[in-house]
From TrEMBL:
Protein source organism: Electrophorus voltai
SUPFAM superfamilies (alphabetical): DNA/RNA polymerases (SSF56672)
GO MF annotation, one: 2-oxoglutarate-dependent dioxygenase activity
Protein name per the record: Reverse transcriptase domain-containing protein
Residue ranges of every copy of the Reverse transcriptase domain listed in the record: 1-171
Length: 322
């Protein structure tokens, strides 16, 4: 397998050539013209801190970071296909792999495919980065170790490696996943630091923000909720961790509180709730698990305020603290 790397792949797209290929693929002329207009005469500058360079107008390549660029590049290189039945070319945007099946020590088709790719790149104005291009040989034969010819591109020998990371997955020459799993474990251990910080947040910050939240959050104003949520967002920036918002915490605690009331026949508010029947649960898939006496459905996810007894309910039954 040859893992091919291109130098500034997206910057080498020629709009006029891309437009021709898009028309050959059957795209409408107006869409091709729109894409051509999008890629040509693009003003571009570089900003470092408060300093910005002068503006330069570009009419080649596709913008970096644009969601359309990988798709345009894939269409631009759609005609890069294998010339032999014993080789295949796998592409994902600008990540390209040449794979060849070598039988009876015959490497000609594999080496010719690489030469064909090199010539194709020269025709399409694509520059191969030989220093980052790597070769990986998978040999499952239990016989004597074989020797394979080195791959050369533009007179430079391609480095042969025993493992390569392709699209986030480490592929080893023995096709084992030990290196990949070790990499995942190492990366996960590094993230444990954020988990420890999250635990500190839960104990020191979240416990303050959510104290008795089922009592007051439902009737708080939008401005009050936003003020509290800003504290959560600040904690996210500090811990580099996505934290549950207060609305979600409120919903979950309302549900938990309702279940406790239903399961506790001695609770003063127990008679205000009743379980939905099995048939009703199937008929109303979006409804909650409980119903308030009087015919109203308690929807904790949609209307959690109903968990707090109304004035009429408070007159009928005393409310015991949580």
């Amino acid at each position: 397998m040859l893992f091919v790397d291109y130098s500034s792949a997206f910057n080498t797209i020629i709009p006029s050539l891309l437009t021709t290929k898009l028309e050959d693929l059957g795209l409408h002329t107006s869409l091709c013209d729109w894409i051509s207009n999008f890629l040509t005469d693009r003003p571009q500058s570089v900003r470092v801190g408060n300093c910005a360079s002068s503006t330069l107008t570009l009419s080649t390549g596709a913008p970096q970071g644009c969601v359309l660029s990988p798709l345009l590049y894939s269409l631009y290189t759609y005609d890069c296909t294998a010339a032999s039945s014993s080789t295949i070319i796998v592409k994902f945007a600008d990540d390209t792999v040449v794979m060849g099946l070598i039988s009876d020590n015959d490497e000609r088709a594999y080496l010719e495919e690489i030469k064909h790719l090199e010539n194709w790149c020269q025709e399409k104005n694509l520059l191969l980065n030989v220093s980052k291009t790597k070769e990986l040989i998978v040999d499952c034969s239990k016989k004597q170790e074989r020797h394979y010819q080195p791959v050369r591109i533009s007179g430079t020998t391609v480095e042969r490696v025993d493992s390569f990371r392709y699209l986030g997955v480490h592929i080893s020459q023995d096709l084992s996943w030990s290196r990949h799993t070790n990499s995942l474990a190492k990366k996960a251990r590094q993230r444990l630091y954020h988990l420890r910080r999250l635990r500190d947040y839960t104990c020191t910050i979240e416990s303050i923000l959510t104290g008795n939240i089922t009592v007051w959050f439902g009737n708080s104003t939008k401005q009050d909720r936003q003020a509290l949520q800003r504290v959560v967002r600040s904690a996210e920036r500090i811990t580099h961790t996505e934290l549950p918002d207060l609305q979600t915490i409120y919903y979950k605690r309302c549900q938990t509180k309702a279940r406790r009331i239903v399961k506790d026949p001695t609770h003063p508010n127990n008679r205000l709730f009743s379980l939905l029947s099995h048939a009703e649960k199937h008929q109303q898939t979006l409804s909650a698990d409980y119903r308030i006496h009087g015919g109203e459905t308690l929807t904790s996810l949609a209307k959690p305020n109903r968990l707090v007894p109304s004035r009429t309910s408070r007159q009928k039954a005393p409310v015991r603290p949580a």
